[in-house]
Design brief:
Strand order of the largest sheet: 1-3-2-4-5
Number of helices: 4
Shape: elongated
Number of strands: 5
Radius of gyration: 18 Å
Structural class: alpha+beta
Distance between the termini: 48 Å
Strand content: 15-25%
Largest sheet: 5 strands, antiparallel
Helix content: 40-55%
Length: 111
């Protein structure tokens, strides 16, 4: 369900977050940037899990940007690490080159 940033940072959302789920981190995905409720919140078990969620949503084109936030024990959130596709472009280029090299060597091609 999509929400506004102000709602996701509210005490109401913090209370619900801890009553229902108790996540260590949340990832706010900007999926509908030109609407009143542009963000979706996903839970993450730890920082690495949060970055993997962010990377997947950004590289598959399903999110415009993401914010990764640690959740305090009362459900409130710390300041976000904001990411977009440009934060993963070098990794994607390296992966693409590696896959191309594997494919070419499979067929006995080199360059």
């Amino acid at each position: 369900m999509a929400h506004s940033l102000s709602f996701l940072l509210s005490s109401e959302a913090a209370t619900a977050r801890m009553a229902e789920r108790k996540p260590s981190y949340v990832v706010h995905l900007e999926v509908a940037p030109y609407t009143d409720a542009p963000l979706t919140e996903l839970d993450a078990e730890n920082r690495d899990h949060a970055y993997n969620i962010a990377r997947t949503w950004l590289t598959n084109g399903r999110a415009v940007s993401v914010g990764i936030r640690r959740v305090r024990v009362d459900g409130t959130l710390v300041a976000a690490d904001i990411l977009d596709l440009s934060d993963f472009e070098d990794d994607l280029a390296d992966e693409t080159q590696s896959n191309l090299n594997k494919l070419m060597s499979h067929y006995g091609l080199t360059f």
